[in-house]
Amino acid sequence: MSQITIQCQLFADEAARKYLWQLMTERNTPLVNELLRLVALHPDFVTWRKRGKLPTAEVTKLAKALKTDPRFSNQPAKFHISAEKTAIYTFKSWLAIQKRTQHQLEGKLSWLRMLRSNEELIADCGQDLEQIRTKAQALILRYQSAEDSAESQKNLRKSLYQAYDLAEQTLCEQKEGSLTRSAIAYLLKNRCQIPSDTDEDLKKFLKYRRKIENQVNRLTQQLENRLPQGRDLTGEKFLKTLEAATKNVPIDNAEASRWQSQLLKRPNLVPFPIVLESNMDLKWLINPQGKIGLHVGGISEYEFTIGCGQRQLHYFQRFLSDYQTMLASGRQHTSSLFLLRSAKLIWVPRKDKGEPWNMYQLYLFCTLDTQLLTAEGTELVKQEVSPKTTKKLVMMQGKSNRTDTQDIYIKRLQTTLNRIDRPFHRPSKPLYQGRSNIIVAVSMGLQSPITAIAIDITTQKILAYRNTKQLLGDNYQLVNRQRNLQTQQRHSSHKAQKKGLSRQFSNSELGEHLDRLFAKAIVELAQTYQAGSIALPKLDQICLSIQSELDAKAQQKIPGYVEAQKQYTKQIRINLHNWSYKPEFDEVLSPQTQAFQHF
After folding, report:
1. Do the strands 360-369 and 340-349 form a parallel or antiparallel pair, or are they unpaired?
2. What is the mean pLDDT of the chain?
3. Is the pLDDT of residue 239 over 90?
4. CA triplet 55, 226, 581: central angle to 5 degrees?
5. Per-residue DSSP letters for 241-285?
6. For 196-227, what is each residue's pLDDT tens digit?
7. Which of 146, 142, 139, 238 is nearest to 186 (CA)?
């Protein structure tokens, strides 16, 4: 399943926009804020945090209890469900990040514990370096497979980590155990190889260890971050913080930093989006002016008209066509094959003055399944949905003492199976058939934004290489134009900030245009060589690695002078935050091997 999100602006009379704005700001967003607060105060929250999972049933109970609260009543049931889902998604995301960060911290601490210089390894085991190297060679012969590949190297590294833990726990002779641990540590810090040069570059080693220590510090700080907060639409929290900072002296640096962060952060005055998970929550129509319009479930008395570009128009025409087909058949088509999967109502700021519903533009964000754009893709989805639905139906029918809700769910599953053979009309288009052994690998960096290669993984032969200039061709000049535009905007923002003016400047969308040109060139390269997949760099936590390496480099060049260290890394950090991706800096800062993930 491949899903994308498109957007359009929604137009309506002032009464509709005013009602929706007041509903979202006075009822829905406060409900989300209260749910976030109650979840964090739940007696079992510490357990959920350790597990990294949030039981949705508990949030549903909290939301159900708030239905009769006068502060959050008088809003449609679909909007109440939206608030519940928003709270669930927010905490699920936060808990997943916390769990991943904790796992990363434990790994970094484990690696830091065994990371030793050659002199320290010799002192730990009481043997000379030659004996450590001999033991390391024996370990390679013991754990390495005959096949020399990336996967075998990964397995070797894993085996060495396990052997190190076993050597720490074993009751074998202390001398032999110390030698084994030192040999494993020697191999791991040299990328599972025995270097030909026995002399270690101590300066380089200390810089690398300092980088890991910086990563540990940053991960520790991330784990100490505050819980998810709601949106302060009235500015009440800001005023309280300002009053506290004015009348009191901070207890410590941590409290001072927290106050500073809250006061400098630009307040988010936009209400939480309305999440419409069902594709039947939107009723599509053609208005008297011949334009595509819709009614939103829960506030169906108001009509909205969509406004979008030609690039997205055909998607909305398909939404309308699918909905009309379903109505014409007496709703005998299943919504499982509806092109639209879900939607969100979002307010976006604009420069107009006046009432808030006039200062903000209303947008509809729609998620669709690209496989459902063609008859062949729809057939694939059908073949995927049918077995899953049948399995769920059999499982639910086998339960005893079912609730009314479960019986309704069984009926819905049976209806889906009965209607799934009535697909919506779709144009026919042959499915792309790529060769599984051909991969297009993409590298991202600041100095060279995009580099792509087509490679045959069976023969390890590079079939094609394309740098940024080759990918863009005549459009390459746009890269420099974009960089100059960013520099000008930074300068203008700095001048405005000094004068106390707004720091928001219009964007020519040149960066988005460049992204599309890159994407088109990469896809064309993949089609040219019939690639079965496109590989992108692993971008998770890349900013952490970059900043830690920059900090280590600055601390080595300017020891003990924190302000000079910050100034040294300032320009690269500016470039990092301006990049439209989470960039892969390995090619800039260190000759590490690029890692890719398939999708």
Report:
1. antiparallel
2. 83
3. no
4. 90
5. HHHHHHHS--SSHHHHHHHHHHHHSPP--SPPPEEE-STTSEEEE
6. 888 888 888 988 899 899 889 888 888 876 78
7. 139
